[in-house]
Each structure stands twice: as C-alpha cells, then as structure tokens.
Design a protein that fits this description.
By secondary structure, this protein is mainly alpha-helical. It has a single domain, classed as Up-down Bundle (Growth Hormone, Chain: A). It has 22 helices and no strands. Helix 4 runs antiparallel to helix 5, helix 4 runs antiparallel to helix 20 and helix 15 packs antiparallel against helix 16. The longest helix has 30 residues. The termini are far apart. It is a multi-pass membrane protein.
Length: about 500
C-alpha cells in the first residue's frame, strides 16, 4: 500500500501553499486599493462630489477634509459583509471541505470585482463591495486553516504566515496600481478596482488543483483518502502517529452535534478568548487605519497627491519585507517574543508621531519637508513591527490552537471579530482623525499597552506543538488557563 502511494513533489507542495496564500493577496489588495481610490479626484467627483469640493477648499481643516460617512462606508461595507459571511463559511468549511470554501471565496470575489469596476452609481459600488466581502469572509476562514493543516509541524508557523505575507504583497500591489492609475483620467479608479480580479482568478484556477487537507477528509469520514493524502504531502509512508492523532481528534469532533455551542464550553474558553482578543488587538494597533488611508494620511501631513501615493507604496514594501522576517523567525524565536518586542516598537512610533503632529500640524498648515519625512519613517517603523508580529500571528495562533471539533467554528469567531473591528476602524477613522486630531495616535498607543500586558500574562507559547496536542502540552501547563482544563469539565461547569 505504502509503496504504491505516489508522493507529491516538493514543488507541487510549495505550489499548494502559494496558491492558497493568494487568498491573502486578494484580501490585501482590497485593503490597499480603497484608500488610494478614495484619494483620486475622478472617483470623488463621480461618487462623492461634496467631499471633492470640500477637499478643494483652500482653507479646509487638514484633519477633516475627508470626513464623510459614505466615503468610509465604501471601505467598511466589505468588512461588515465578511463578518456575517464567515459564519456561513465555517459550516461549508466543516461539511464540504477547505478546498471548496476557497473556491467559493474566489467566485464571490470575481463577481464583486465585476460589479465595483463597472458601477455607474454609489449603490452598485457598495453592492460590489459587499460581494467582495463575502469572498473575503470565505477566504479568511478557509485559507489559514488549510495552511495550518497541510503544513508539517516544524514549518507550520512559517507556512501559515504565507497568508499574511500575501496580504502585504496585495497591499503593495494595490498601492502601486493606485499610484499608476491615478494618472489615467477619468477612469483610473475603474482600472484599480478591476485589477482585483487578477488574484481572484489565480485563486479560482488554483483551487481546482489543490488537494483537500487530510484533516478535513478524515473529519468527513474519508479515512483512507485522508491517510493517502497525508502520505503524499509528508512525502513518506511513515505517518501513522500523525494519522492516529487526526483520527482521534476527528472521532471526538463527530460526537459534537453543535460546534458553536461546544465552543462556549469551559474547556474551549482559552483558545476562544485568545483567538478573539488577538483579532481585536490586531485592529486596534491602528494598522488598518494607516493601510486603508495611508494616501489620505500623507496628504494630511503635507504630501501632494502623487507623493502621498508613492509614500504609501514605500510603507507597503516595508510591510512585505518585515513579514519575511516573521517567516524566518516565528518557528525559531517563538510567538510570544515577536508579539512583545513589537509592542514596544509600535508604541514608541505611535507616541512620537502623535507628539510631532500635536506640536507642528495645525488645522490649516502643513508639516515642513523634514518633519513630513520623519512621519513617513515612523510609520514605516510601526508597520515593520506589526508585520513581523501581530499581523501574521493574529491569524496563525487561532488557526493552530482550537481542537478539531471546534476549529472552523472557533476560527469563524476569530475572523468575524477581525472583520467587526476592521469595519469599526474603517467606518470611524476619518471621523476620529477629524475630532481627535493628533490624539488618535495616543489612542492607538494606549491599546498597544493593553495588548502587551495581555500577551505577557495570558498568551502561551505554541511553537513546535502539534495542533491536536495543544490541551496537554499548552493549556494544561499554563498558570491561568489550566483551571479550565480540569477533569470535572463535564460535571456541569459553565
């Protein structure tokens, strides 16, 4: 039997990781494209004429010239849609597999791209963003789980971070497209929105070739196919130990009729609390406020339109290169070290930016050239710290800590928490910037302090631990969470 199994080549396995990670590129492109498009005069003049006129007003308040709920809704509607769709994606992911969920993600995104790029009015523009959000919700649910389940234990962190790496690449691509398409009049914005179809198309075609994960096959009672697939992706016939771990976890999972209800049980509380809070904290670092609205932010501090878009490209490249640092270091230095180190780095950069703007940027002036360049440099320092820590680890840790019986349900809560907070930030940032002014950076810095304390006391180290051995090796060894793993869990404790 083993001798007859034809193992996948290393090239094909890497191809599978890469194709799945295009779900991250699709997400990242959507993050990056919205801020650049809303900085284009042609786009504003067509859909938001009042904002266009306000922007052109010579003495308009620097902090408030983009403050418009409809502009924010253009960005945020995608994330509200992704929030809701992630729960449907969880059921599909469990019942029909990770592969089919990824396929559906690409289809919804392709439809959404077609609607947004051709939208004649704001209603269809928002409808297209909502359809894109469904695709993002499905992709963000399935892709990190797929990568964690298909990767070998010793490379699981690095492989899973490919999702976040491709998110950052998507943001860079979007910033470059924004910079170039801003020179195409009057429909450069249509080009920018339409090119989101490229990663969606690659994901669609690739998902037809991807194998299903062994865990998903075994979970759906396709044990023999699951064993064969496990042998193929591990490139060895000696997979009995890992296979039996998955079988035992799958048998336990099949005994759970209501995974969302099981998720609220006492023993599942540690991964649920950590999974949700990591996503909340990830957004309240302020990263997406910067990535969504980087061109707008740089215009606020004094850069001209094209210069602000180019500055956003620079921060995007910093984002990509720093995520590569995470791929190298996450399985070497561990999750906790990266999270804590970055808190110090992000806190310092946010505080200094806030002080600079508080002292030197009034409602109607611009920073001088040197001060504006310092702000860009500090934004790059902040982005670098986020990119090798909270960015990738916010997705990695929830994908590897939930037991199989609640894995897709638990990750749905993590994804929906991320999308909810992303929606809140996207919908409110421009208004917060208008009302809080430089104080918005102190607001995010305060959150970073809370994040660091949470990691210090409540986030355990999970590197080099099998996904299906987390209870024994992680939760039962932790000073606080071990109380939720006692043997009396089934005796009526809430």
């Amino acid at each position: 039997m083993v001798e007859q199994t034809r193992f996948y080549s290393k090239t094909f396995i890497f191809f599978c990781w890469t194709v799945a990670a295009f779900g991250g590129l699709m997400f990242g492109y959507d993050i990056g494209i919205s801020g650049g498009v809303t900085a284009m005069d042609d786009f504003l003049e067509k859909f938001f004429p009042k904002v266009y006129e306000k922007k052109k007003h010579a003495k308009e308040d620097n902090y408030c010239k983009y403050d418009n709920q409809y502009v924010q809704l253009f960005t945020s509607s995608l994330y509200l849609s992704a929030l809701v769709s992630s729960f449907f994606a969880s059921k599909i992911c469990s019942n029909y597999g990770r592969k089919k969920t990824i396929l559906l993600a690409s289809i919804f995104c392709l439809i959404g791209v077609a609607v947004t790029a051709s939208a004649p009015n704001i209603l269809l523009l928002i409808v297209g963003r909502i359809l894109l959000g469904v695709g993002v919700g499905f992709g963000n649910e399935a892709v990190p789980v797929f990568l964690s389940e298909i990767a070998p234990i010793k490379y699981r962190g690095a492989v899973n971070i490919m999702f976040q790496l491709f998110v950052t690449i998507g943001i860079v691509c979007a910033n470059l497209v924004n910079f170039l398409s801003s020179k195409v009049h009057p429909n450069g914005w249509r080009l920018a929105l339409g090119l989101a179809g490229v990663p969606a198309s690659i994901l669609f075609m690739g998902s037809l070739i991807l194998p299903e994960t062994p865990t998903s096959l075994i979970e759906r009672e396709k044990e023999e196919k699951g064993r064969t697939t496990l042998q193929k992706i591990r490139r060895t016939g000696d997979v009995e130990k890992e296979y039996q771990e998955i079988v035992v976890a799958s048998q336990m999972a099949r005994q759970v009729d209501h995974p969302f209800r099981k998720l609220l049980s006492r023993q599942n509380r540690p991964p649920l609390v950590i999974g949700i809070l990591l996503q909340v904290f990830q957004q309240f670092t302020g990263i997406n406020a910067i990535m969504f609205y980087a061109p707008v932010l740089f215009q606020t501090v004094g850069f001209k339109n094209n210069a602000s878009l180019l500055s956003a490209v620079i921060t995007g490249f910093v984002n990509v290169s720093s995520t590569l640092v995470a791929i190298y270091s996450v399985d070497k230095w561990g999750r906790r070290f990266l999270l804590l180190q970055s808190c110090v780095q992000m806190f310092a950069s946010q505080i200094i930016i806030g002080i600079l703007l508080q002292l030197h940027l009034t409602a109607t002036n611009n920073l001088d050239g040197t001060e504006a360049k310092v702000v860009v440099a500090l934004v790059c320092v902040f982005v670098a710290g986020f990119a090798w820590s909270w960015g990738p680890l916010g997705w990695l840790i929830p994908s590897e800590t939930f037991p199989l019986e609640t894995r897709t349900a638990g990750f749905a809560f993590a994804v929906s928490s991320n999308m909810l907070c992303t929606f809140i930030i996207a919908q409110s940032f421009l208004s917060m910037l208008c009302n809080m002014r430089a104080g918005i950076f102190f607001f995010f810095a305060a959150w970073i302090v809370v994040m660091g304390l949470f990691v210090c006391f409540f986030v355990p180290e999970t590197k080099n631990v099998s996904i299906d051995d987390m209870v024994e090796s992680v939760w039962k060894q932790h000073w606080f969470w071990k109380r939720y793993m006692d043997d009396d869990d089934n005796k009526g404790k809430p």
